[in-house]
Amino acid sequence: MSYSLDFGWLYDALGAIARGASMTILLIAVTTVLGTIISVILAAGRRSGNRPLRQAITIYVEVIRNTPFLVQLFFIFFGLPSIGIRLDPISAAILAMTLNMAAYTTEIVGAGLDAVPKGQKEAALALGLRPRQVFVKIVLPQALQIIFPALTSQIVIMMLESAVVSQISVAELTYQGDTLQARTFRAFETYFIITLVYLGLSIALRRLLVGAGRATLPAGVS
Amino acid sequence: MIEFTLWDIIRNLLFATRWTVALSLAAFVGGASVGVLILILRISKTGWLRRFGKGYIALFQGTPLLMQLFLIFFGMPMLGFRIEPWTAAVLCLTFYASAYLAEIWRSGVEALPTGQWDAAASLGLHRIQELRLIILPQAFSITRAPIVGFLVQLIKATALTSIIGFDELLRTSNAINNATFEPFKVYGLVALIFFVLCFPLTQYARMLEARQIAH
Questions:
Q1: Containing domain of residue A78, as a range?
Q2: Closest partner residue to A74 among B67, B182, B187, by Cβ?
Q3: What is the pLDDT of residues B23-42, one digit of tens each?
């Protein structure tokens, strides 16, 4: 049996692929912003004096890190409506992605906070800054700089993992691929092209983040 | 609607868990074998072999696992092989794991002092012996913590094979959910089972890491 590859459908499909890619980019952009903010708050909370708060954050981080993203997604999309929380697919996807990413980045941000020398905090306090100012202006920027490469990797991983939100019919890149292959019966070629788009996106996203880091963070970021 | 007691649900889920465990183990063993080959290519002295190893790792780390599954599942029949979901799942997760394991071990090889290579060479060992007797055992032993950490990632990754129709834990739970209409309970239990599988390994990885830092 011989099989010849056929990419004739590709020209008509470019619009759908572009729409899918934009949705993927939108999802990861929202997730990155929300996830980073939440993880800064949680990482700070985990280092506070409040014991129940610390334990709650630890439980959240461990539960998310030790269960598959797809199960979390199904739990949020299919499970939560039975306790009265009904979300549309896009909100469910953003919620699941944000909760997932924040659990990983809480650990990363935490490691960054721990890596800032104690003297920095003491010096800032000695200068008369309030504790919140010390955190926001002195400790956090240095921590972010330390963890920037790890954070970049985590964002790229999350972007790749977002492919599974197609399973709850969010019209992102993989979903568009599913629809295209159902129409063209060219499953391999379709997913091959979609995979290449993901590869391009992950390379571009990494470049973009490293570039943005270089432009905004004080000293050089590798 | 079929009547399912809580125990029925749990029993069926636990029954399906063995496939999740079997797939994780098969992919880990397969991934380790292929991973050593990729590692050897990645640290080869020959430029194009090294570039191939690097490209292989970048390809698997830069594309979604779901796409890799689809490409194998839909691509193999085109080459004339009939492929079952189980075969596709093992094959795909083996490649996926090999890329990550090779990269972790490479970091181990690079962490070794160059004196180890020099000493191996001065003993008159050739390249394969150097790797087998001196370099790889040390690289494996110092990377034990991230390897266990990756095993957790691999167990979680098996959930994706439900999408191509492999009857592991998550696909079974989808079927149970379609019969019972209790998604909160069913997916909650699935999450719990995955947690019970993964959490001890996470803790073990942490312990190994702490021990390594202490040394």
A1: 16-216
A2: B187
A3: 999 999 999 999 999 999 99
Answer whether A181's CB lies under 8 Å from A24's CB: no
Residues in chain A closer than 8 A to B78 (CB atoms): 3, 188
Handedness of CA B130, B134, B137, B140 (dihedral sign): negative
CATH number of domain containing A34: 1.10.3720.10
Predicted confidence (pLDDT) per residue in A70-91, tens digit: 999 999 999 999 999 999 999 9
Select the residue from B13, B17, B61, B63 to test the A interface by mutation, using most A Cβ atoms within 10 A.
B63
* Residues of chain B with C-beta less than 8 angstroms from the C-beta of A177: 67, 70
Is residue B112 less than 8 Å (CB to CB) from chain A?
no
Say if A175 falls within a structural domain.
Answer: yes
Q: Does domain B6-214 have CATH number 3.60.10.10?
A: no
Mutate one of B17, B66, B103 to test the A interface: name it (highest A CB count within 10 A).
B66
Whether residue A63 lies inside any domain: the answer is yes
Give the nearest chain B residue to A84 (CA atoms).
B184
CA distance B155 to chain A (A): 8
Nearest residue to A158 (alpha-carbon basis) of A44, A66, A18, A24 = A24
Is it the case that residue B2 has pLDDT exceeding 70? Answer: no
| Long-range interactions of A169-173: CB distance < 8 A, separation 24+ | A169/A89, A170/A23, A170/A27, A170/A89, A170/A90, A170/A93, A171/A19, A171/A20, A171/A23, A172/A20, A172/A23, A172/A24, A172/A27, A172/A93, A173/A17, A173/A20, A173/A21, A173/A23, A173/A24, A173/A197, A173/A198, A173/A201
For residue A107, the one-letter residue type is: E
Q: Do B195 and A194 lie within an 8 Å CB cutoff? A: no
**Residue A2 within any structural domain of the chain:** no
Domain boundaries, chain B: 6-214
| Residue A6 resides in a domain | no
DSSP character string of B140-185 = HHHTHHHHHHHHHHHHHHGGGGGTTT--SHHHHHHHHHHHH--HHH
pLDDT of A72: 97
